Amino acid sequence: MKKAVSLALALSLTLMSLTACGNTASETTDAAATTETTDAAADTATEATGATFKIGGIGPATGGAAVYGLAVKNGAQLAVDEINAAGGINGTQIEFNFQDDEHDAEKAVNAYNTLKDWNMQILMGTVTSTPCIAVAEETNKDQIFQLTPSGSAVPCVQYDNAFRVCFSDPNQGIASAQYIGENKIASKVAVIYDSSDVYSSGIYEKFAAEAANQGIEIVASEAFTADSKTDFTVQLQKAKDAGAELVFLPIYYTEASLILSQANTMGFAPKFFGCDGLDGILSVENFDTKLAEGVMLLTPFAADAQDDLTKNFVAAFQKAYGEVPNQFAADAYDAIYIIKAAIESGKVTADMSAQDICAALKTAMTTISVDGLTGAGMTWTADGEVNKAPKAVKIENGAYVAMQ
Fold first, then answer.
1. Closest residue by Cα to residue 49 from 114, 93, 97, 82
2. Backbone φ and ψ of 398, nearest 5°
3. Boundary-marking domain end, from 267, 299, 331
4. Which of 248, 265, 299 is the last residue of a domain?
5. Quick check: helix, strand or coil at residue 146?
6. Rounded Cα gap, residues 308 and 112, in angstroms
């Protein structure tokens, strides 16, 4: 029987302060009540008493993809603080430890090993696809449960211990073509994609296959690679010459900002449509955000939505971090509450081994139903994929506005 879970925000906006060194656990021991303990002693106490659930996080807190990682870190922390303030998970508090991987696979594995040394029991991460694939190899070998908020490449969840909150790359490509076709946004489309990136090429492949079913003609298909992602004038000129009404950009926001700037210089003004990688384009340094006016992107979250859950989340996030949350923050917020739901459904306790927790959560994930910021009635298949309805937003006056 599926367990319906509502991710209601805590009424109190009082946020508890956590550390990544196990101090919460030390507070629950008799020894900690009378004497100071070292971080190592605190971790030992946590492991021995099962005083807290130790959830790790991995993502880019620095570097070119930091807007994603910081949003995930902050969204997850907000959820952790709310849950702890409300009494924890079945009375057990959460410790959250987020490590920077700089959007690099090798550094992501190093971050994972750091979290293992911290006695992590559950991983919420990683944020971007290539590091996520590398870490998934490790979590599978160690049988540690992994829930990525935003790793969308197919191999991110290739093992039975890994699940995701976001849509997979193929699903984003198919849904984008369907949205453009069903809403008659354009019939002649050009695509500019990164052939060296699994995220971008994966979306493009499925978009191209579905476009034919939607009456969409792909008039130009232009690739670039990680070594050639600063000058897009050739790709844009081919799209312009082919009469493209819309340019589909299954790429990240940094490259997209360059494309929009260069298209403007060329006097090329088609419609632009992207996926979740474009979320963050409004925060690119030295980018004229007026050039993003009218850009559309497929996303499961719109900060201007008027449902109570979204309004409360946005207000709490702005109070805590001084900015409007993007979809990555919402994915991570949902991820923590999804883990909570699975823990409760699987009757998991903090004194269980990471391997026993993983076994219980793998089963629980296929039985729960979660109402979250990024989807109502979200469910998961045994292969780690989420079932939820896609949404789209449009940038208007420097903000994301939900599209019908």
1. 93
2. 75, 20
3. 299
4. 299
5. strand
6. 36
One-letter amino acid of 185: I
Detail the DSSP E strand segments found in 132-239: 145-148, 162-164, 188-194, 217-224
**Are 228 and 210 in a shared domain?**
yes
Cis previous bond, 126, omega within 30: yes
Going by the DSSP 8-state scheme, the letter that residue 89 receives in this structure is B
- Identify which of 356, 173, 157 has the alpha carbon closest to the alpha carbon of residue 250: 173
CA nearest to 220, candidates 181, 193, 200: 193
Closest CA to 378 of 153, 175, 164, 157: 164
| DSSP H or E stretch at residue 95 | strand 93-100
Assigned domain for 402 exists: no
Structural domain range at position 242: 170-299
Same domain, 127 and 182: no
What does the radius of gyration of the chain's CA atoms come to, in whole angstroms?
Answer: 21
Per-residue confidence (pLDDT) for residue 44, from 0 to 100: 33
Cα–Cα separations (whole angstroms), residue 322 to 96, 253, 308: 21, 21, 20
Contacts with 43 (C-beta within 8 Å, 6 or more apart), sequence order: 21, 22, 25, 118, 119
Residue 369 near residue 337, CB atoms below 8 Å: no
Residues 6+ apart with CB under 8 A from 332: 57, 71, 72, 73, 74, 75, 76, 79, 124, 149, 150, 165
The number of domains in the chain is 2
Which is it for the CA torsion 260, 261, 262, 264, positive or negative? positive
CA distance 400 to 66: 20
Neighbours of 112 (CB within 10 A): 28
- 90 phi, psi to nearest 5 deg: 50, 40
Backbone angles phi, psi at 38, to 5 degrees: -80, 165
DSSP state of 68: H
In terms of pLDDT, which residue wins out, 51 or 13?
A: 51
Compute how many other C-beta atoms are within 10 angstroms of the C-beta atom of residue 81: 22
Q: pLDDT tens digits, residue range 166-220?
A: 989 888 999 999 999 999 999 999 999 999 988 899 999 999 999 999 999 999 9
Tell me the H-state helices in 212-249. Answer: 233-241
